[in-house]
Amino acid sequence: MRNLIIAGLSIFCLIGCDTLNQVAGEVLTTDPAKPSLTNSEVISGLKSALVEGIKNSSSMASAVDGFAGNSLIKLPFPQDAIKVKETLEEKGLLKGQIEKFELTLNRAAEEASKEAAPIFMNAIKNMSVQDGFAILKGANNAATQYLRKNTTDQLIQAFSPKAKEAIDKVELTKVWNPLVKGYNMATILTGKEEVNPNLDQYVTTKAIDGLFTLMEAEENKIRENPAARVNDILKKVFGSLDS
Questions:
Q1: Sign of the dihedral through C-alpha 93, 97, 102, 108
Q2: Paired residues of 26 in beta bridges
Q3: pLDDT at residue 54, rounded to an integer
Q4: Which of 32, 151, 174, 211 has the fewest CB atoms within 10 Å around its CB?
């Protein structure tokens, strides 16, 4: 009977100690060489990583030639309207306008990206502890994918007016409309269907994709390169993953 009581007290003590550890926010690790992390440190580290990635990617994307000069995210001629480009090039028409259109398309994305940082920053505020650990132990782009999965709809809704403003500001439609008009007039002879792609949607989608691409690259740097961990919390949290 005495042994049974002792065993029961031992189990109670173990459960009680484990509960106290969880309340204290300790992250238990099987590797004694790794620093212990609290839940708040993990979340702070991941938010810091996302803030750093957002700051850098938004700055790069919104700069002159941020899209136009970066082959990784440069906006190509819209696929839905690629036949416009092909037809006009075949006829040797409006070559200068085609080149101007492609450059102006990227200028619109660059202009719209100036408004992206606050939208992304607002999206990371409600990251849960469970999300944090899943991201920390996930793939090299886990934080970026978390952000994409949980904010894409809101980002599109918030970003679309900015893309439209950017398109209007750089007068993109003044370049696009003559291209479409020239193509659609030619369909009388060619028998092809007229086209009228939605430039607002195209720029919005591609600009957001480009920003996520840059953010993913920034996240990879923080995870893989200790020199990219610019503050103590990043060093501690992501240093815990180093082999």
A1: negative
A2: 38
A3: 86
A4: 32
Backbone angles phi and psi of 137, in degrees to 5: -90, 5
pLDDT tens readout for residues 6-58: 343 333 333 333 432 333 344 434 355 556 778 888 888 888 888 888 889 99
Distance, in Å, from the CA atom of 185 to the CA atom of 194, rounded to the nearest integer, reads 8
Strand partners, 27: 37
* pTM assigned to the model: 0.74
DSSP state of 26: E
Question: What kind and span of H or E run contains 38?
Answer: strand 37-38
- The radius of gyration computed from the CA coordinates of the chain, to the nearest angstrom, equals 26
**Cα gap 14→6, rounded to integer Å:** 12
DSSP, collapsed to helix, strand or coil, labels residue 202 as: helix
Angle between helices 142-169 and 116-123 (to 10 degrees): 150
